[in-house]
Structure formats: structure tokens, C-alpha cells
Specification:
The structure is a homodimer. Chain A is an alpha/beta fold. Helices cover 43% and strands 10% of the residues of chain A. In chain A, strand 2, helix 6 and strand 3 form a beta-alpha-beta unit.
Chain lengths: 226, 226
């Protein structure tokens, strides 16, 4: 068995940004006269706007049109960009990535965000070790399509089945399973731990601190023995 | 069997304010140099600050002191009060309360919020039918202590065991069960539906729209037959 690679989601997994995304979408929708409940917006985070907005708009009794989707996406991005300054790394993120670099275990970051937003979010993790970063700009379909994770596996020179995917949302679990990776879920995006498990997560941890302490459960040898 | 009374929680049950509470606490904590993950703050919403802050501060490696708790509570309130203008009623809230008024089924609102904040939140539900409203100002202990719900049952002239409690958080379920009410949970606060069920909810619905359509499951006769 070769050394597995690890592919990390960004929002809600490495940085604490899911609630800012909820607030940005909620405000963008309200500004366009659409009153969507925040818990329903929350459950869609991790997908791109053009994937979840059509159903959300239909449920709220609004017609979907390409110009409206575009307007809402721009309104979200404007608001989220202002909120990025409140985004901080999630507990254990930096320590885990540094530990993987030391061992070494190859890892990459794959996110549904665009290149510009991703660059700003990664800037919030001071001291982030270098690694391949795949953004929505490089693929035709965002999660739950497996394209982002497949590209990341390739960048790590790993077969997709050799990889662990680490993410916080149902969409990460579904996308990772479609490429036959083992998906480890963390609860730091505020998603239902039971639902993550039921979606087929290989293992669910509270956060990256718990994951770091549990690398043995995933088959990684203790760091000191290397 | 007498006609049951229904006691509603406010935040996350009748109005879509849980995510604003998360943002207000997150910002209040950051302003005091405390970086708490938002999903952990989310899970504490529904309790009063003085109940959840000591554990949260300890987990983040900060000492708890009465002045710090007071400062954080005031910082939260200042921020939340600004955010109230983005708070809107949750889908089905107004329709359900109006239907109960018509039948008539006696109902009350019981919230961990203080009187001033509650008045402003209730003002966001335009056309709210009159009913008893119990706030944290009237009890010594907020949820998960049963005091608020017990006071509400008394105001409805019902024995606590004759009441349904409707809430969105684990703390509503625990408080309602302590007074031996049947607790109906809704998922509109963004809480884990499985965890609400496991905490002992009598029934879990997506939102008040689904609850309204399911009153027969709770033993209320169809409205038209009355």
C-alpha cells in the first residue's frame, strides 16, 4: 500500500467561513426581495450558487433566470469579500498541515470557491505550508461533482482511490465518494454529524484537532516512529 | 383529555435569528481576543450567555470572570440589536399562530432573551396575535432549566404535562422534558435533527409549515371539523 494523499476542502474545514457564507447569501437574497430561511441556506453551502440557487428560488416561489443567478452570485461575493476579514483558521488546521509536511504526507486543497476568493481566504492562515490548490476556476463542475477532487489527486500524482478527502459538508462526502476516495468529515461547518455519517463518511471527527489525534485510526503510523 | 396548550420558543422557532446570534457572539468574543469556532457557538444558542460562556471560555483556554461574562453579554447585545433589522419571521409562523387563535388553542411564547430584545423581535412578526410572553427577566434560571416553560404553562392555566413545547434547540427539548411536557422540535435553528430526536423530542419537523400540516399527528382534530 502506497502512502495515501490527503485532499482538504477549504471553507468550514480549514477556515471558519461557513457562517459568513450563510450571512452573505442571506443578505444578497433579501436585497433581491427573496426571504430564504438561513438554515436552508446553511445546508447548501459547499455547492456553488448556480447549483443550489435554482431549487432554493423555486422553493421560495421565485422564477429562476440566468441574469438573476448572476446578480445573486455577485451580490454574495461582494458581501463575502467584506466579511473575509472576520474569517480565522479553524482549530488545529495549521498544526495538522505542518505535521503532514513534516512526515511527509502529500496534501492538496480543493475548493468550490473561485481563485481570487481562495487566495484571500488562504491568506488568513498565516504560515500555511505550500501545497497544490485547486479552485472552481479550473473545473467545469463544482461539488458534488468529483472534478475538483480528481484534479487534486492528479496534482498529488495519486490514484483517486488512494486518497483521503477531508471536508465538512454533505457535498464533500458525496463528491469524494464519487471518485472512490475515503472521506473523513469534520463537524466544523456546523453540519449534522449523523447526516455526514449517513451520507457515507468513512469517519466523522469534531474538528481537525480530533482528526490530528486520530491519524492512527486512518492507518497513518505514529509520527515518532518514522 | 383537556385541550392542550402550546408554548413556543422564539429565536430559531418563530423568527430566523439564530445565525444573527452566532454572528453577534462571534464578533463579541473576537473583539475581546477570544477566537471561538462558530459551529461551537451555534450549538450553545438558546442558553443564556452566563450558562454557556464559562465552558466555552475554558475550552478556548481563557479564564472566566464575572466582569468578562458581563462585558461579553453587553457586546453581544449591542451587536445583536443592530442585526435585528435583518431578522424575519420563519415560514409558517404567522399562519400557525393565527390558526391556533381561530381554533382556539391557547398558546404562549417563552424565550431566554430579555424583555427589551424580545419586544423588538416580536415587532418583526407583523400581525402577531396577542398571547402571553415570558422572557428571561421573569425567571431566575434560563433554559435548559424549565422555569420559563413552567411560567408559561401557568399563564395558560394548564398543567405543564398538558402542554406541548415547540422549540428548535436541544436546550428547548431538555427544558420541556424536565417539566414533563411533550416537546416538538423544528429544524429551523439549523440544529441536528437526529440530535433533537435523540434528546427526546416527541416529534421533529422541518419547520412550522410542516408542523401546521401535521397537527393531526399531535392529536389536534382537523380545523374544518370544529
Amino acid at each position: 500500500m502506497r502512502q495515501p494523499g490527503i485532499i482538504f476542502d477549504l471553507d468550514g474545514t480549514l477556515v471558519d467561513s461557513v457562517y459568513q457564507h450563510v450571512a452573505a447569501w442571506h443578505s444578497a437574497l433579501l436585497a433581491n426581495g427573496i426571504a430564504a430561511a438561513q438554515w436552508r441556506i446553511h445546508r447548501a453551502i459547499g455547492m456553488s450558487g448556480r447549483l443550489f440557487l435554482p431549487k432554493l428560488l423555486k422553493d421560495e416561489g421565485h422564477c429562476t433566470s440566468k441574469p438573476l443567478i448572476g446578480r445573486l452570485e455577485r451580490a454574495h461575493d461582494d458581501r463575502f469579500n467584506v466579511m473575509i476579514r472576520q474569517v480565522i483558521p479553524l482549530p488545529g488546521a495549521l498544526q495538522l498541515l505542518r505535521q503532514l509536511k513534516r512526515r511527509p504526507v502529500p496534501f492538496a486543497i480543493a475548493t468550490s470557491g473561485d481563485a481570487k476568493q481562495t487566495k484571500r481566504l488562504l491568506g488568513r492562515i498565516v504560515g500555511l505550508p505550500s501545497c497544490p490548490v485547486i479552485t472552481a476556476n479550473e473545473v467545469a463542475s463544482a461539488k458534488p461533482a468529483p472534478d475538483l477532487f480528481e484534479l487534486a489527486a492528479g496534482r498529488l500524482q495519486k490514484d483517486p482511490t488512494e486518497c483521503f478527502v477531508v471536508g465538512d459538508s454533505i457535498w464533500d462526502v458525496l463528491a469524494g465518494r464519487r471518485m472512490k476516495a475515503s472521506v473523513v468529515a469534520v463537524r466544523t461547518g456546523g453540519f449534522d454529524g449523523h447526516e455526514l455519517q449517513e451520507s457515507g463518511a468513512y469517519r466523522v471527527y469534531a474538528d481537525l484537532l480530533e482528526l490530528s489525534e486520530s491519524l492512527g485510526q486512518l492507518g497513518f503510523p505514529p509520527e515518532s516512529s518514522k
